[in-house]
Amino acid sequence: MRMVSKIAFVVLGTLLLASVAQADLLTTFTSSISASDPTQLGRISRNGIPSDWSGLKPFPGIINPTTVYNYHTYTVNSGVTPFILITIDSVPANTFASAYFPSYNPSSVPPNNGLDINYIGDAGFSGNAFGVDPVSFEVFVPVRSDFLVVVNTSSNVGIGQPFTITVQGFLDDQFTSTPEPSSLILLGSGALGVVALLRRKSCVCNSPRFGGHTSGLAHVVRG
Questions:
Q1: What global pTM score does this model have?
Q2: Which of 53, 126, 141, 222 has fewest C-beta within 10 Å?
Q3: Calpha distance 26→104 (Å, rounded)
Q4: What is the rounded CA–CA span in Å between residue 116 and residue 104?
């Protein structure tokens, strides 16, 4: 019986590990900004500090408050994962990504032309780091809520240049993801199998052949 219990522990432990899934992929897409997209005055200052889950990044301010930049917003739903990781893959340093909740409302009102309102984070850099590595930043969004990924040009050269946005969700700041349904089925099936094994072992040990109790057998014989 002790050996079976050890086996059950190992099997259940393995199944629990198997139930841990990869990050929830909320969306991924390749896009570009066009000259017909909306415009804003000024843009967020690139301070080289991507936002993270340790706390809300202070708004870094804006630069060129009278210069016109094109932007595009992309709506994403957080699902059951409030810890959001946003990655932008843009080789030229001519686009910049930020995030807002629940809306994005640029204006001409100083000092920040509305870009500080509903701000929840940004990439810190334009384009890929060293021109090679995609840049990621982290934000927190309430579960089952729509938030906006905003990409704006950092110069007119950015119009028409492709970039890829990937948004992933986690349950906490330890990058815990939601279990996949197939893993949960596997876990349930494994648990049932272990229970059946334990019951079978118990029945064998209680049979007359192994010196167990015979009352159950006698009851069956008496009909």
A1: 0.73
A2: 222
A3: 20
A4: 9
